[in-house]
Design goal:
Layout lengths: L3 E4 L1 H5 L8 H12 L3 E5 L8 H6 L8 E4 L4 E4 L5 E4 L4 H13 L4 E5 L2 E5 L9 H4 L4 E4 L13 E5 L2 H8 L4 H6 E7 L2 E6 L4 H12 L6 E5 L5 H6 L2 E4 L5 H6 L2 E2 L7 H11 L10
Parallel strand pairs: 1-2, 1-12, 2-3, 7-8, 12-13, 13-14
Antiparallel strand pairs: 3-4, 4-5, 6-7, 6-9, 9-11, 10-11
Helix pairs in contact: 2-11
Organism: Enterococcus phoeniculicola ATCC BAA-412
GO molecular function, one term: magnesium ion binding
Protein name: Cof-like hydrolase
């Protein structure tokens, strides 16, 4: 029996207009009314998803979100942090050098604020276009301090520029960080071992929920650890091949209410087993 559903946003719960369909809302509301925990699991900070949480009635006591790709587990009603892993100043200095050498823009998220470092004069960041709900401010390395929280670093640039650059990143940095594409034009850096799967494992332990009682639904590379960790991994039909191959089940696309279809079939209808591909 599924007791917790972890759901990605972009390309999964949200359609291409960044909206939640009525069918998805109804399926989630029904699952919540049955006592199932509905957990948004995203790379975004809590500030950037509060509108969706309100829309889904997930701002009550007992509602949780996993943000920053597993770096934060938070209570939705108060924002209280249950679990947190952040980057150190030295990490930011290292990634600043990497971005500067590769002539790429570097943005560092500090809770709901994005610190924008001038690491590239030719390739400006497009992160403000991707996350309009966040506060953006220029930053320089000498302003780094111990009182600031550094949640993650990102490189946001057009895909035709980003993809060739990714191939140039030395392997040593993959040994130090989780380096994952979360969209075709967004590369994210997290502390090593911090993934959506890790965040779900922490929340599940706190709630006394077993892996086989968890469903995870996603579409992108950063969803892979979640899909692999949970008892029922569901990939969207629009998911990247890596995620589809790892999933237990492939549902419809984000334009076809794929989230609702999976929840209706395996949670609301309480069907046993989960074999087959849509």
């Amino acid at each position: 029996m599924i007791k917790l559903i972890a759901i990605d946003l972009d390309g999964t719960l949200l359609n291409d207009k960044k909206q939640i369909s009525e069918r998805n809302k109804q399926a989630l509301a029904q699952a919540k009314s049955m006592g199932v925990k509905i957990v948004i699991c995203t790379g975004r900070p809590l500030k950037a998803i509060e509108g969706f949480l309100e829309e889904l009635n997930l701002l009550e006591s007992g509602d949780y979100s996993i943000t920053f790709n597993g770096g934060l587990v938070q209570k939705n009603d108060t924002g209280e942090i249950i679990e947190q892993t952040v980057m150190e100043q030295n990490d930011i200095r290292t990634l600043h050098q990497v971005a500067e050498k590769m002539d790429l823009p570097l943005d560092v998220l500090s809770e709901g604020t994005v610190l924008q470092f001038p690491t590239s004069q030719t390739n400006p960041s497009i992160y403000s276009q991707l996350n309009k709900l966040l506060d953006f401010q220029p930053a320089v390395m000498k302003e780094l301090n111990d009182s600031t929280i550094y949640n993650k670093a990102v490189i946001a640039i057009d895909q035709e520029i980003l993809d060739p650059k990714i191939a140039e990143i030395p392997k040593i940095y993959y040994d130090q960080y989780e380096i994952i594409k979360t969209r075709n034009n967004l590369l994210e850096f997290m502390p090593k071992g911090i993934t959506k799967g890790y965040g779900i494992s922490l929340l599940a332990k706190d709630l006394g929920i077993e892996r086989h009682e968890i469903m995870g639904i996603g579409d992108e590379e950063n969803d892979l650890p979640m899909i692999e960790y949970v008892g029922m991994g569901v990939a969207m039909a629009n998911a990247i091949p890596l995620v589809r191959d790892a999933a237990d089940y492939v549902t419809a696309t984000n334009e076809e209410d794929g989230v609702a279809q999976a929840i209706e079939q395996f949670v609301l209808h309480e069907k046993e087993g989960f074999d087959g591909i849509l």
